[in-house]
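tl;dr need the bound structure. longer version: we got a ligand (oxa(dethia)-CoA) that a collaborator sent over and nobodys looked at where it sits. i said id run it. heres the input, straight from their email, havent touched it
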Amino acid sequence: MVDTSDEWISTRTGIKERRIAGDDEAASDLAYRASIEALRVAKVEPEELDMILVATITPDMIFPATGCILQKRLKAKKIAAFDLEAACSGFLYGLTIGNQFIATGMYDTILVVAAEALSKIIDWQDRNTCVLFADGAGAAVLRPSEDSSCIISSYLGADGEGADLVGVPAGGSRLPASFETVKRRQHYMKMKGNELFKKAVKAMVKAIEISLEKSKFSIHDIDLFIPHQANIRIIEAVVKRVGLSMDKVCINLDQCGNMSAASIAVALDQAVKKGRVKKGDKLLLTSFGGGLTWASMILEW
Ligand code: UT7
C-alpha cells in the first residue's frame, strides 16, 4: 500500500503485529468488551457503577459521547458518563480524575475505559503514520481501597505549544467537514514523528522524576514500568535515562502497535494476566502523546 518494509518498521519502531477493528466496529464496541472483562474481574455489576469515563481520540462520533453509548450498552444506571480527550495520556488522565472523585467521597465505583479505533483515522497512503497505529481497549474499575493497594501519586502535564505536531486537522469547528477537506485528506491523522520523538523522551523522563518525587520513592522501588507504547527506541531511551533495567519494563508494542490511550491499559491487563504483577508491587505508568499531554502515575497493586 505504501513504500515501506518489515525491516524499517521493526527496526525503527519495534512493531511486529497489531490489531485492527472490523469495518463494523467502533470505539464503543471495543470499550464495551474491555468493560465487561474489567467488571467481571472486579466482581462488580454494571448497576453498581457511579460514573463512566471513556478516554478516546476516536469516539464513535463527535457527539454524543462514547461514554453515554457505553452506559446504554452496559445497562448501567443513569449515572454520569462522558469522554475525555488526552490522546495517549487518556488512560492515566482518566485514572487520576476517577481517583479524585473517590478521594472526595463523591463516588464509590468508577469505570475508566481507554478505547481507540485508530485504524479509522489513519491515512493508509501516509507511511509516516499508517504503519504505527492500531485498535484496542482496556478498562479499570476504581473503588476505595480496603487494603494498601492504591494510586500513590499522579502527575499530569500538557503543552499546547506542540498542538500542531499530531492530530486530525478537519472535522471540528475550526475546519468543518467539506468536499475540500475530504479531498485534501484532512480527516486523517497527521504527525511530525521526529519532533515528537525528542519531546516524548524528555517529557516522560521529567514526568517520571516528578511522580517519584511526589511518592517519595526512588526508581529502585519500582517493580514494573508500563510506558506508553509509541516506539521501542523512545522506551529504551527513557529507561536508560531513569536508570531502570529493561527486564522491569512491560512491552506490548511488538504485538499491538501504538493504541494511543489504550496502550497502557492493555499492557497493564496483559502484565496482570501473565502473572508479572504481584500484590504489593509498585508500578510506574508513564505516557506522552498528542496535545501535547503527558502523565506519570505510581500505584501499589
Ligand atoms: O503516540 C504518541 C505520539 N507519537 C509518537 O510519540 C511518535 C514518535 N515518533 C516516532 O516514533 C518516530 O519518529 C517514527 C517511527 C514516527 C519515525 O521514525 P524516525 O526514525 O524518526 O524517522 P524519520 O521521521 O526521521 O524519517 C526517516 C526516514 C525518512 O526518509 P528520508 O527523508 O530520510 O529519505 C522517512 O520518509 O524514514 C522514512 N520513513 C519511512 N520509511 C519506510 C518514514 N516512515 C517510513 C516507513 N517506511 N513507514
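gonna send this back to them w/ a short note. Strands lie at 51-55, 80-84, 110-117, 135-142, 150-158, 166-167, 190-191, 224-227, 282-289, 293-300.
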